[in-house]
Amino acid sequence: MRKLKAIIFDVDGTLAATEETHRQAFNEAFKEFDIPFQWSVSEYIRLLSISGGKERIYKFLKSQNFDISGKENLREYTLRLHQRKSEIYREKLIAGHIGLRNGVERLIKEARQKGIIMAIATCTSTENVEVLLKNALGGAALSYFDTLVSCDLVADKKPSPAVYQYALANLGLKPENCVVIEDTSNGNLAALAAGMKSVITTHPLTVDEDFTGASLVIDQLGEPDEHFTVLSGNALGANYIDVDLLEKIILSDHSAHGRVDLGEADFAVAVN
Question: Which among 12, 156, 183, 242 is annotated as catalytic?
């Protein structure tokens, strides 16, 4: 009997390479709102340390002492701006048919065939996830996942473990029976704080982040004929992520994995 019961996926940057599309959508929304800023790639990489689009906008505008002329408070303004940004992002998903990252569709199919539960835990909105999955995997894609926990349900953003704790509660599973697949240091910290092992699939926007404690850090999930590159950790002789490797990771003690105490920090800006 397998000890691995569930795979919990992040979305942006993990299931699909969406971060550049998000950046473009932020900039287009700024232009529509006559905001005199455009986020460069390098600046956006820095801003990714702030989990959640609303939080990212709010903290950035506040740091710039942005004047909204007293028409509304900055939080209300941020909500309107973010709503428009999300609409632009979804329009781009539909028009551009952004595909899943290498190895993702194969792993999802294998997990379904082998009876491994799948879940999603993300800082993006439920609607964004639905549009992405529908366009990448078809109309039935949401049914592949037993639970979807998004920022619509959980206010505290990663590195708070709240989104993963919520997913575990919905699944009725213990953390030692689940593996998280993530792409950011905040996601890694959130998974570890929830007591789960993590596999990190980096990309150009996150490759230089600190992934201490992750069981395995790789550049992609890989395919049988297109192997991943190991950046840290032990791949246990494997060349691509499959259910058997995740089972071995669950059973192994090779990582620096463990619960991370994040203390009493306030992770959420009250703009939800």
Answer: 12
Q: Is 210 a catalytic residue?
A: no
Q: 178 and 117 in one domain?
A: yes
CA angle 201–82–269, rounded 5-degree value: 80
For residues 77 and 180, give the distance between their C-alpha atoms in angstroms, rounded to a whole number: 34
Distance CA 77, CA 84 (A): 11
Q: Tens of pLDDT along 125-160?
A: 999 999 999 988 988 999 999 999 998 899 899 999
Same domain, 117 and 79: no
Q: Which helix (H) or strand (E) holds 14?
A: none
**pTM for the whole structure:** 0.87
Residue 10 is among the residues annotated as catalytic for this protein: yes
Range of the domain at 242: 6-17+99-251
The angle formed by the CA atoms of residues 49, 147 and 185, to the nearest 5 degrees, is: 20
